[in-house]
């Protein structure tokens, strides 16, 4: 991870388009390109890279860093394709046996992923004592049974966030039994408190190892075609980056990076650290919150491919409102969404000579957008104005839902559908539309920092609260450095203390996040 | 006649989880993992008989049970499944008689479903009753305490099979000792206390609460208008429809205390209701006017889905309906109010039944 930063190439794969940008040392935009996202994802990435590198303003030889936010992992899980067969090992018996590993998975996904599951004795209490010692013999017996089918292993220990000793000891046993090259995913590196959700995410991570390796290779090939050998980083779902080698071992963390990239890009383009952000696309709008420079994370369980996880996803309110949203009922009355003409907006919208009234037409009728044949909306003006009014109400309500406090907040609007958003909305102090908002997501990938996060339980020791908080800060700092941040410039960007109810000694759950620029 | 053949099967679990959350008044712990444990146990061992206390012999022993301890611990240690059998074995040794049925100590939240997963594994019925009719934070806040049932002997166990027997001078000491011991077990313990005969249970528990939880859940799943359905099923009054505009939380003495404000929307525009919270929703006020107070049940529902929102998950901007409905009548007696009335939680208000307040 060495080398001075010169030009940065940021890429973000969206549902409709794959965007690429090149930024200079000062962070100014040098070139941008949009290409259609392809079914294999890789094709769109390659096309976007080819386009932006071919821009006359770009000297390809000066590209030192490439940052990619991709949907490969999500798609592989949704399509149940190219997934590894995983041996799922839980370390927790005699606790936790009431619910077996992978129990609440959709059967077809479990079928595709599981090479067998076991609960071996071991794991930790919240205060750091062993539940029981790790049963290595039981683990060896299980591994012998799955040696022929499993090509990856997921290890999840109870309270791994308190101690990873059993996960590390088990990993050693796995390497002795199945060889040094078998990929092992440790739950401590994947998720936070919540055994079943963290176990699910760890098994998914193990299942995605080949996909991650293939993406890394495809990206490297696409870059080598232009004689580029930059440092490669992947965007993760909290709006920060991980080094290529780290991403290949933690592919599950790339899931959901798109919204985080948009929010970070919006922040960068406006210089804001605390604001609301609306990313308006063709079929939907995501509204999120930037707090202290990072997307606010959701506290609710997130389902991926039908599996419950506790990923650190941005807390978003998504509404079915975008440029292609259909705004009339079959009988000609106004109704906004949820259906959309999607890709076919350029053929089906009224202003493009089509026969379907869309929100884009409503924006033209309302004077928010000049596009196509404005005369074509004349006859339906009443309907379109009504639709726009309802769309504004939906936006205002969604904005209110996502806010964490009373009072007006600025709103940064990005994405191709951003003209749909009016300048004035209830609860919004000012609407900001930065230049290059159409590629805010790729910019967000390019400018992101590197972070580390911990979620652990601490008991007040002799050093009291100060010692405990210092320990948590140090742990988050070390995680950020491991992910590729510059140790000298890492800062704690979030620290949350949650006292635990119903215990006799002061005990606190601490979530801490550290972030810093690339080393 | 048909009541003796009633069972809890897989199809009852989802509605029961929804219903237990509504009855939990915002507390009682998450139902997700407990529901999975029940599903797994029923898949392996078959459905659980649901016993009407009237159908059990007078002298049959009924074992109240559930988890005590920190909810965050149960997010990691989801239980072994054997705890119910160990509680039963320990109790039978002490009492010298067989346990005939399990009973939920509290019907609110995950604890309301817990006995089902244990009962499936040991082939015992679950009684259609519980010891609270809702959720409360402390061991002695049970209807059996009001009825004068001896909490002793209590058995505590963990997933390793450690057994402890507690004999305490009263319910408050039981709470204190059990709480301290559960920390040694890793922050949570399976426990039974207030064991009684079926004859005693008929007059000292909240009857019909398992079927009530399922009925509430079904009503929420099937109704076009969840609030109207809850009004029909449990006499729920809607205190306000609106959105959460403020939430504050602090921890004192091991309890999470807080306050949430709901501002009216639609027909309730211009109104504002404050909720006082201590693990559960305890008091609802409009300005200085009392709308509902513990021990009546105050629950915050998501206005779109009708699902109950746990107090820890309340957040600014949520669209909600706050409902209140009558607690079991025993909580309205002097003994009940002394244990779990507003003054027992430190609020300087007199209890008035929600029907009178909302009239």
Any key phrases for this structure?
A: 519 residues, alpha/beta, six-stranded mixed β-sheet, 14 helices, 21 strands, B: seven-stranded antiparallel β-sheet
Let me know the average pLDDT of chain A.
89
Largest interface here, residues on each chain? Answer: A-B, 44 and 44 residues
Write out the strand line-up for the largest beta sheet of chain A, numbering strands in chain order.
3-2-1-4-9-10
Total number of β-strand segments of chain B?
A: 17
Proportion in helices of chain A:
25-40%
Q: How many β-strand runs of chain A?
A: 21
Q: How large is the radius of gyration of chain A?
A: 24 Å
Structure description:
The complex is a heterodimer of chains A (519) and B (359). Chain A contains 14 helices and 21 strands. In chain A, the strands form five sheets. A six-stranded mixed sheet of chain A has the order 3-2-1-4-9-10, sandwiched between helices. In chain A, strands 11, 12, 13, 16, 17 and 18 form a six-stranded mixed sheet that branches. Chain A has a four-stranded parallel sheet with strand order 6-5-7-8, with helices on both faces. Chain A is an alpha/beta fold and 519 residues long. Chain B has 359 residues and is α+β, with helices and mostly antiparallel strands. In chain B, strands 1, 2, 3, 4, 5, 6, 7, 8, 9 and 10 form a ten-stranded mixed sheet that branches. Chain B is globular, with a radius of gyration of 19 Å.
């Amino acid at each position: 991870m060495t080398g001075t930063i010169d030009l940065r190439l940021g890429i973000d794969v969206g549902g409709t388009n794959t965007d690429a940008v090149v930024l200079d040392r000062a962070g100014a935009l040098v070139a941008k390109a949009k290409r259609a996202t392809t079914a294999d994802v890789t094709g769109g990435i390659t096309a976007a890279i080819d386009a932006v590198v071919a821009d006359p303003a770009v000297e390809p030889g000066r590209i030192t860093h490439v940052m990619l936010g991709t949907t490969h992992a999500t798609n592989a899980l949704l399509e149940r394709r190219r997934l590894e067969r995983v041996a799922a090992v839980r370390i927790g018996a005699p606790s936790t046996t009431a619910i077996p590993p992978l129990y609440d998975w959709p059967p077809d996904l479990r079928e595709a992923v599981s090479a067998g599951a076991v609960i071996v004795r071991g794991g930790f209490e919240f205060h750091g004592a062993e539940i029981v010692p790790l049963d290595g013999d039981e683990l060896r017996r299980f591994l012998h049974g799955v040696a022929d089918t499993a090509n990856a292993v997921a290890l999840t220990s109870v309270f791994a966030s308190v101690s990873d000793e059993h996960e590390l000891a088990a990993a050693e046993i796995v390497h002795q039994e199945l060889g040094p090259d078998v990929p092992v995913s440790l739950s401590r590196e994947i998720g936070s408190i919540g055994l079943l959700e963290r176990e699910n995410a760890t098994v998914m991570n193990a299942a995605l190892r080949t996909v991650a390796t293939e993406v890394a290779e495809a990206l490297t090939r696409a870059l080598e075609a232009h004689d580029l050998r930059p440092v490669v980083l992947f965007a993760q779902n909290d709006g920060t980056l991980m080094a290529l080698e780290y991403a290949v071992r933690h592919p599950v963390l790339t899931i959901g990076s798109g919204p985080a990239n948009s929010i970070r890009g919006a922040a960068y383009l406006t210089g804001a650290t605390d604001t609301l952000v609306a990313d308006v696309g063709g079929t939907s709008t995501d509204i999120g919150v930037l707090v202290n420079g990072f997307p606010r994370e959701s506290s609710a369980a997130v389902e991926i491919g039908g599996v419950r996880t506790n990923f650190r996803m941005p807390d978003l309110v998504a509404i079915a409102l975008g440029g292609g949203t259909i705004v009339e009922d079959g009988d000609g009355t106004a109704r906004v969404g949820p259906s959309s003409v999607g890709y076919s907006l350029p053929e089906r919208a009224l202003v493009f000579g089509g026969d379907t009234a869309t929100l884009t037409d409503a924006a033209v009728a309302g004077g928010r957008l000049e596009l196509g044949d404005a005369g074509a909306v004349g006859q339906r003006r009443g309907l379109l104005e009504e639709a726009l009014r309802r769309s504004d109400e939906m936006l205002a309500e969604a904005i209110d839902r996502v806010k964490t406090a009373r009072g007006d907040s600025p709103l940064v609007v990005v994405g191709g559908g951003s003209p749909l958003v009016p300048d004035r909305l209830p609860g919004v102090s000012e609407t900001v539309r930065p230049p290059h908002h159409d590629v805010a997501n790729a910019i967000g990938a390019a400018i992101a920092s590197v972070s580390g996060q911990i979620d652990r339980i601490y008991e007040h020791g002799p050093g009291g609260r100060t010692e405990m908080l210092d320990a948590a800060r140090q742990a988050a700092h070390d995680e950020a450095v491991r992910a590729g941040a510059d140790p000298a410039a890492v800062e704690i960007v979030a620290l949350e203390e949650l006292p635990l109810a119903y215990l006799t000694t002061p005990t606190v759950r601490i979530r801490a996040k550290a972030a810093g620029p690339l080393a | 006649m048909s009541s003796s053949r009633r069972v809890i099967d897989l199809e009852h679990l989802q509605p029961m989880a929804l219903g237990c959350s509504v009855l939990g008044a915002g507390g009682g712990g998450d139902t997700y993992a407990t529901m999975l444990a029940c599903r797994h146990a029923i898949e392996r061992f078959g459905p659980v008989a649901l016993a009407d206390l009237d159908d059990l012999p007078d002298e049959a022993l009924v074992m109240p049970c559930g988890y005590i301890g920190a909810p965050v611990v149960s997010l990691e240690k989801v239980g072994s499944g054997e705890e119910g059998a160990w509680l039963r074995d320990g109790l039978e040794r002490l009492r010298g008689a067989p346990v005939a049925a399990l009973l939920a100590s509290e019907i609110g939240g995950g604890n309301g479903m817990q006995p089902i997963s244990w009962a499936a594994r040991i082939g015992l019925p679950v009684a259609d009753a519980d010891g609270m009719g809702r959720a409360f934070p402390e061991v002695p806040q049970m209807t059996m305490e009001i009825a004068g049932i001896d909490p002793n002997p209590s058995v505590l166990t963990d997933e390793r099979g450690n057994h402890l027997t507690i004999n305490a001078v009263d319910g408050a000491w039981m709470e204190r000792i059990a709480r301290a011991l559960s920390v040694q077990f890793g922050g949570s313990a399976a426990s039974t206390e207030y064991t009684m005969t079926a004859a005693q249970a008929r007059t000292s528990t909240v009857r019909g609460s398992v079927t009530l939880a399922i009925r509430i859940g079904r009503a929420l799943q099937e109704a076009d208008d969840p609030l109207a359905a809850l009004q029909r099923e449990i006499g729920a009054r809607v205190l306000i429809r609106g959105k959460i505009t403020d939430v504050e939380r602090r921890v004192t003495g091991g309890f999470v205390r807080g306050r949430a404000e709901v501002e009216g929307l639609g027909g309730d525009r211009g109104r504002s209701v404050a909720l006082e919270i201590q693990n559960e929703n305890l008091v609802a006020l409009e300005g200085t006017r009392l709308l509902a107070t513990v021990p009546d049940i105050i629950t915050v529902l998501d206005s779109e889905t009708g699902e109950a929102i746990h107090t820890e998950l309340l957040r600014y901007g949520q669209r909600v309906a706050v409902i209140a409905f009558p607690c079991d009548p025993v909580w309205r007696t002097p003994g009940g109010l002394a244990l779990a009335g507003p003054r027992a939680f430190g609020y300087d208000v007199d209890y008035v039944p929600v029907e009178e307040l909302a009239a």
